[in-house]
């Protein structure tokens, strides 16, 4: 499995927020995406775009229940949304998070290989490379990704 180390400055995600049991994310996270996708036209004008006017990407941003961006405990929070321009403000019925700057270890996977990739990163790659998890893991869905593809962002150092 190919891992990339990147640094990403603080950025904003505007999305639909949910909270639930960490072991049952498969139950409460998909409805957040359904709601975000269904109402995306409400915030599309705030989406961060590249030089070709393509949306930079969608994020499944995660945090502990205190929203301090620590890893999930028995419960966690998930924000299904898109990266937005820096001067974006909260919209009605949406939640805006400012994700801190981190150095990340990233890995690309699919929905089918998600569990294996997550286990590999947390139990093998990070320890073998003297990294510890410095925050909650995020999911990144680039606009040019193949259907079902996701990039997992494991924060290894807060900057």
Which secondary structure elements does this structure contain, and how are they paired or packed?
Elements: E1 3-8, E2 11-21, H1 25-28, H2 30-38, E3 57-63, E4 75-84, E5 95-99, E6 102-110, H3 114-128, E7 138-142, E8 149-158
Antiparallel strand pairs: 1-6, 2-4, 2-5, 3-4, 3-7, 6-8, 7-8
Notes on the structure:
18% of the residues lie in helices and 40% in strands. 28% of the residues are buried. The chain has helices at residues 25-28, 30-38, 114-128; strands spanning 3-8, 11-21, 57-63, 75-84, 95-99, 102-110, 138-142, 149-158. Strand 7 (138-142) and strand 8 form a beta hairpin. The chain has one domain: Alpha-Beta Barrel (Multidrug-efflux Transporter 1 Regulator Bmrr, Chain A), CATH 3.20.80. The chain is an alpha+beta fold. The longest helix has 15 residues, at 114-128. The protein has three helices and eight strands. The chain is globular and about 45 Å long. The chain starts with a strand and ends with a strand. The chain has an eight-stranded antiparallel β-sheet.
